[in-house]
Amino acid sequence: MTTPAPGSPELARLSLNQKTTQRWSVPEAVEGCVQRGIPAIGLWREHVAATGVEASARAVREAGLRVSSLCRGGFLTADDDTARREALDDNRRAIEEAATLGAECLVLVVGGLPKGSRDLDGARERVRASLEVLAPAAADHGVRLALEPLHPMYCADRAVLSTLGQALDFAEPYPPDVVGVAVDTFHIWWDPDVRAQILRAGPRIATFQVCDWLTPLPCDVLMGRGMMGDGHIDFAPLRDAVAAAGYTGDIEVEIFNDDVWDADPHAVLDTTARRYVERVLRA
Amino acid sequence: MTTPAPGSPELARLSLNQKTTQRWSVPEAVEGCVQRGIPAIGLWREHVAATGVEASARAVREAGLRVSSLCRGGFLTADDDTARREALDDNRRAIEEAATLGAECLVLVVGGLPKGSRDLDGARERVRASLEVLAPAAADHGVRLALEPLHPMYCADRAVLSTLGQALDFAEPYPPDVVGVAVDTFHIWWDPDVRAQILRAGPRIATFQVCDWLTPLPCDVLMGRGMMGDGHIDFAPLRDAVAAAGYTGDIEVEIFNDDVWDADPHAVLDTTARRYVERVLRA
């Protein structure tokens, strides 16, 4: 297919997660989205900090872009008091940033096992306890938290939430507009229960992120996310389940991949728009 | 602790999965087990083929070792008829080998997506259909199949069974002594539902395999299995769940790891026995 033109109704729900164009600053990514007719953007705190929160907020507002997510808070599993207090403080700042940016949600990657610890239950318990602090703070700022289950290969070092069902269990004590979940195809495509859990998620789906699963995995398994169509994921059943769950928000393309990061970001946006329509929308 | 002496009752349930001493032939691994006082062995078909099935069976029988498992059959997801027929034939041969060797079970790694396919449901359906053929064949030979859920990072290329719960669903139509499951700490430690599913497994637990989860994962993620104590897994709760499920069989140490494979196999057996007692039995 040819690349869908800016203004095409097929792009109406596409969001560029700014990690996909890692080398671009917030103003550059905003400008790229405007040129390419992509109406929404997922921001990252490291990029926002480099530009400044207020300046970033102004850039997206003046460009008329929606901010589909802010990535990310979390890392809530520390087992010593100082580190735990610092993590909560950092998440409070992230909530304020999300409010200033008008982000649809603040994505939380909850953290792995603390160094040297094997206490998986304890780490999960501290995530639960942290939410008791952060959910009210988020509600005060009108910010929605999005718990992100990460692929189980990151359980030890990045996120002790590994399935959508588990993330929903953690979210359950809170209203859906305060604690939602992130549905990311890369992390959950393998789950035999994935469609049932997406339906269960219903109004808790705070963001829908897409990218493909590549094999072989690269040496740095964080970088194994591929452009839709380059890997093994069939997006149609996941897209349909998310729609059946009632989600009508933006669909973010978030790709961590050295080849994608090395490419010209404008070309990456073209590919993103084309593959999104071809592999996610129309598939 | 000092290395437990041969004859120690603490070694009574220890089994050496022969992958842990990859460079040893069947006779060498059998001799190593005898010297080290390890009363059981998990055999691999490639090693058995090199020695010969009858000669391997004689070696373990004359040494008085139990054969806790034969690894492995499976790869049942092919979507063309020829490949599918070949896979079933190969599994029938594996069943015969398991019978000849007197193995407690034949471990099945079910296979990933066929090349170029994204039809995960279809691949799973073909596993289900293959079991309808293989379970009666196994029963005829008095062989028990052990469905092994592999870590979800292998879903695309190695096993579309990713959780113990899913493996149990696949086993359910068959008697537990015909189709059981393999409980391997490396593959399932992250699962928030792991203890409930181990209890559910009950008499279907056909083998209990232990090794650790290392970070960072090596470039070849197949080789990320570590000696118990070198990684992130807390073995005690898994050991307790397996015991509560009623499993009293052998506990296999199965390690794919370049450093372990490069080491002197006798030293590896010493470490295996010591870490097994320290990290699995007494932890």
TrEMBL record, chains A, B:
Residues 44-267 form the Xylose isomerase-like TIM barrel domain. One of its GO terms (molecular function) is isomerase activity. It holds the Pfam family AP_endonuc_2. Gene3D superfamilies: Divalent-metal-dependent TIM barrel enzymes (3.20.20.150). InterPro entries: IolE/XylAMocC-like, Xyl_isomerase-like_sf, Xyl_isomerase-like_TIM-brl. Coiled coil: none annotated. The keyword Isomerase applies. Keywords: Isomerase. This is Sugar phosphate isomerase/epimerase. It comes from Egibacter rhizosphaerae. The lineage of its organism: Bacteria, Bacillati, Actinomycetota, Nitriliruptoria, Egibacterales.
